[in-house]
């Protein structure tokens, strides 16, 4: 697997720094007799043994932070005489659920656990539970009635805790990739396309990328089938992607569908923000997990430098990096294809004016960011630091 970058030097440095620290791990499953799966709602979740000791492998870790679980009430805990596999929690975001809450399901590939029920904690009190959560787990091969969504702390006969097989921007594993191989196997094949472009153009103004339609038109002229994932059933998305050779699109959840591709393919990601920080290193880790090559293009032409997850409007276009990519890969285009998109610029500028009126200036935003970062350093343990940062972001109304 290889990566190629068409972008600014600071983005290339940022990317290389992060991927140099990533690694692959071996996974395992920890058995817990009379295990207690704890739901403390806002305070976190996890698995404890019969002596009320936390099973550390049950912590949901993102990078170096994870949820914190305080003491919980040991009295009158209901008991279910079941052997279950602990999966994680109900998370109301498609992309994050895909990466962070499907990363324990691999245990059921082992015949020792394949007929057990799986448990997810609903600590966020999400109602209704998103359909895609059931869909993913059922496509893996688990029956609907064998999915337990736990609203309260419960003790079980045995709880099996698989270690995380993926941690965003830190590590991955072969078993994480095999989870998506199994789902792809269980989805019937349909007539597909060798080259697919996943577009955000059908999303609302908050989530779309201005200027994308003009860029995707060039991909379409060069043999790519343009699809709009949010308009398609999950099975259809997987069916289309699993046999394609090249998957392209703007940075975001849709490109994570590359997890369903076969080794030897390629994922082309267009960076839609100008600040170096983005999710490119995470996408590259996913690609390497599945044996896919990566291509990254700095496509942003935004006036104000923003981070990847910013709520500000974003705009891309055929800048010099996009041209370098097109020329390197033999794309055909004409002068009209690469001319500025005046309509997209007008829409972008209007929304940016509204955004600036209702959001902090870059200076104030930087002050808040520094305060959140440095104040957290005096908080003990990485779990509590993570919770402190989350608390301050909410109180200070901090946005990227």
From the structure above, extract its key features:
Rossmann fold; 12 helices; seven-stranded mixed β-sheet; 400 residues; 17 strands; alpha/beta; six-stranded parallel β-sheet; single chain; 3 domains
What topology does this entry show?
Elements: E1 3-6, H1 9-19, E2 23-25, E3 29-33, E4 36-39, E5 45-48, E6 61-62, E7 65-66, E8 79-89, H2 94-100, E9 117-121, H3 131-140, E10 147-150, E11 154-162, E12 171-173, H4 174-186, E13 195-198, H5 212-221, E14 225-227, H6 234-242, E15 246-250, E16 266-271, H7 280-289, E17 293-298, H8 320-328, H9 335-338, H10 342-358, H11 362-376, H12 382-395
Parallel strand pairs: 1-17, 2-12, 8-9, 8-11, 9-10, 13-14, 13-15, 15-16, 16-17
Antiparallel strand pairs: 3-11, 4-5, 4-11, 6-7
Helix pairs in contact: 1-7, 11-12
Label the CATH architecture of the largest domain: 3-Layer(aba) Sandwich
Portion of residues in helices? 25-40%
Number of domains: 3
The CATH class name of the largest domain reads Alpha Beta
Count of DSSP H/I helices: 12
Number of strands: 17
Can you put this structure into words, describing what you see?
The chain has 400 residues and is of the alpha/beta class. The chain folds into three domains: 3-21 and 186-358, Rossmann fold (3-Layer(aba) Sandwich), CATH 3.40.50; 28-164, no CATH class; 362-395. It is 32% helix and 20% strand. The protein has helices at residues 9-19, 94-100, 131-140, 174-186, 212-221, 234-242, 280-289, 320-328, 335-338, 342-358, 362-376, 382-395; strands at residues 3-6, 23-25, 29-33, 36-39, 45-48, 61-62, 65-66, 79-89, 117-121, 147-150, 154-162, 171-173, 195-198, 225-227, 246-250, 266-271, 293-298. Strands 3, 4, 5, 8, 9, 10 and 11 form a seven-stranded mixed beta sheet that branches. The protein has a six-stranded parallel beta sheet with strand order 1-17-16-15-13-14, with helices on both faces. Strand 9 (117-121), helix 3 and strand 10 form a beta-alpha-beta unit. Helix 1 crosses helix 7 and helix 11 (362-376) runs antiparallel to helix 12. The relative contact order is 0.13.
């Amino acid at each position: 697997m290889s990566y190629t970058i068409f972008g600014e030097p600071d983005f290339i440095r940022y990317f290389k720094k992060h991927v140099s620290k990533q690694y692959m791990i071996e996974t395992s499953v920890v058995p817990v007799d009379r295990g207690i799966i704890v739901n403390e709602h806002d305070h976190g979740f996890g698995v404890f043994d019969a002596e009320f000791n936390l099973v550390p492998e049950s912590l949901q870790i993102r990078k170096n932070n994870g949820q914190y679980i305080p003491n919980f009430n040991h009295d009158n805990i209901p008991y279910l005489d079941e052997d279950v596999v602990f999966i994680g929690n109900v998370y109301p975001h498609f992309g994050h659920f895909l990466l962070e809450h499907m990363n324990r399901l691999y245990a059921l590939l082992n015949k020792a656990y394949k007929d057990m029920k799986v448990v997810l904690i609903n600590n966020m009190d999400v109602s209704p539970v998103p359909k895609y959560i059931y869909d993913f787990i059922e496509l893996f091969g688990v029956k609907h009635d064998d999915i337990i969504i736990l609203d309260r702390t419960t003790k079980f006969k045995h709880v099996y805790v698989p270690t995380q097989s993926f941690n965003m921007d830190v590590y991955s594993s072969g078993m994480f990739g095999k989870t998506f191989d199994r789902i792809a196997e269980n989805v019937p094949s349909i007539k597909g396309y060798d080259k697919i472009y996943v577009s955000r153009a059908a999303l609302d103004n908050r989530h779309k990328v201005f200027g994308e339609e003009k860029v995707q038109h060039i991909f379409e002229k060069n043999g790519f089938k343009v699809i709009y994932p949010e308009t398609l059933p999950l099975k259809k998305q997987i069916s289309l992607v699993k046999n394609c050779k090249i998957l392209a699109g703007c940075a975001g959840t849709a490109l994570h569908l590359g997890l369903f591709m076969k080794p030897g393919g390629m994922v082309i990601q267009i960076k839609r923000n100008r600040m170096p920080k983005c999710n490119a290193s995470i996408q590259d880790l996913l690609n390497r997990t599945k044996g896919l090559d990566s291509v990254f293009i700095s496509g942003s032409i935004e006036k104000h430098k923003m981070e990847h997850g910013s709520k500000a409007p974003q705009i891309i276009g055929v800048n010099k990096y996009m041209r370098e990519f097109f020329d390197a890969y033999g794309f055909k285009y004409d002068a009209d294809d690469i001319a500025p998109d005046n309509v997209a610029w007008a829409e972008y500028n209007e929304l940016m004016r509204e955004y600036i009126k209702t959001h902090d200036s870059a200076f104030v935003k930087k002050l808040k960011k520094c305060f959140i970062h440095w104040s957290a350093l005096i908080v003990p343990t990485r779990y509590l630091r993570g919770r402190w940062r989350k608390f301050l972001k909410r109180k200070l109304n901090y946005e990227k």
